[in-house]
Amino acid sequence: MIHKTFLLLLAALCLGVLPGTSLRAQDPPLTPAQKQELARGKFRDLTTRMQKLMVALQKTEPEESKLLGVGLQYAQEKKLQQRLDQANAMLQSERWDEALVAMGALKADLATLLNLLQARDDDLRKLLDQIKQLSGFRERVDQLAKEQQNEKEDSVRTEALQRQLAELAQKRELAQALLAQQQELRAATNQLGLQAAAEATKPLADREAQLQKQTERLQGELEALEQKQAELAPPPTPSAAPAPAQPAAPSPPQPSASAGKAAKSMAQAQQQLGEQKPEPSLPEQDQAIAKLQETVRELDQMADAAKRELAKLPFDQQQQRQEATQAATDKLAQDMEQPAEGEQPSDEAKPGQKRVQQAVPKQRAAAGQLKELKPAKQKQQDAKDDLDAAKKELDEALAQLRQQLQDEVLRALEDRFSAMLKRQKELSARTVALDGARKNVLTANGQLPASLAEQLQGFAKGEDELAAEAGDALELLGEDGTTAVFPPLVEQLRDDLAAVAKRLGANQSGPDVQQAQRDVEDLLDLLINALRKTIERKECGH
Fold this sequence. Notes:
Elements: H1 4-15, H2 32-56, H3 62-77, H4 80-92, H5 96-118, H6 122-190, H7 198-232, H8 255-274, H9 278-311, H10 315-337, H11 353-371, H12 377-438, H13 450-480, H14 487-505, H15 511-539
Helix pairs in contact: 1-2, 1-5, 2-3, 2-4, 3-5, 4-5, 5-13, 6-7, 6-9, 6-10, 6-12, 7-8, 7-9, 8-9, 10-11, 11-12, 12-13, 12-15, 13-14, 14-15
């Protein structure tokens, strides 16, 4: 925290009580001009010491040095030293009203400077920075999890297509075996002639019945393969423009249907053989052979389609994508290890950091499996589980930080609006006093004296500054994003203050302007009370 002497001196300047000004009982009291002159000297001394300390602390206490720099920049932007000089000149020439306005504005700006150096808004800034950082990490984790999911799905699809090809090859071998047996049985049947004794046809009928059962079993297995093939087919690509009329696409092969027809022909051939009619069974056996040949061809077509889909998922590309995701995850893990700007290094891990780190070796192992032309769905799923867990930890941390931010915002707004109300009451009282005086000091041509007009411009500037304060409060509410009930009221406050400033700037100070100022005070009272009730409810857990 900034050196205590600075804060005490600045607080004294804000309150109008300067340290080191106590006098002995017999000493005469200081005049306003003397007090102002003392304040000028003290402030000049304060800024000089701040500049020196800022340089000295740059290496040892960078945060405090940065905060001093912010305070000095604010003092420069607000021209505090020049305005202290101007207020002193006003007092020296006994321009009391102007001096009061100038010193009121100075007091408000000095209070803001005190808040800056006390870092009252520092917690809010740090919270916002932390939320921004974790939100960035969360977005990157979410993107990596989506990429990992896509890569895992490619591995799943690759493995399923490989398994489908193996199944198709196995069923093709079975169909070929059944075809060969049927051809042998047909040749044996052809040797029997038109009629044959039961002892000659019965073994053939039994073999045909066995072939029929095996073919029916093959038919059921092929139906399952066809269903799997349909699931593995790529979804149709949506098109924005209607496609021109195209000839109907050929139906996908259905080897189960041809196998089923082969089984029916086998059943009829078996019946003829059972009745000792080998010659009439030959056409049915020929039909069974033709349908089994068709089954083999259709299995080849299915295998070709599966190979085409598998070719769309080359292992080298899968490996490259997995390595890219691994590199991005590793980079995220390294970024999460680094302290944020202005944050002190810490051994404490950020939410989700360990989970992100754990995903990297699993992704590396997955890339290694893909390099060996092996699907890596389990390693990829494990990595995705880690990324999902990291995302969950980040979500929980962000929810907690946003709740903390809301609490801090409410308290900061209460302080801000209380200070604004105090300033508004000062401006309102001075507007009333000036309006009472202006009736007696009009110039010969009925114009407002320049000194009073200058005071009104000062009042207008004060109201404009309050309007800017309301705008800052609105931005703070926007950062918070959870206290939706307040923004409309703060927007009204900002607009009302801007309207009052415009009327004062037009040298108006009558009852309408004064009523508008009282309305602003009422609105600030309403906001302060609503904020206090909200804070109380939250503290009670409601």
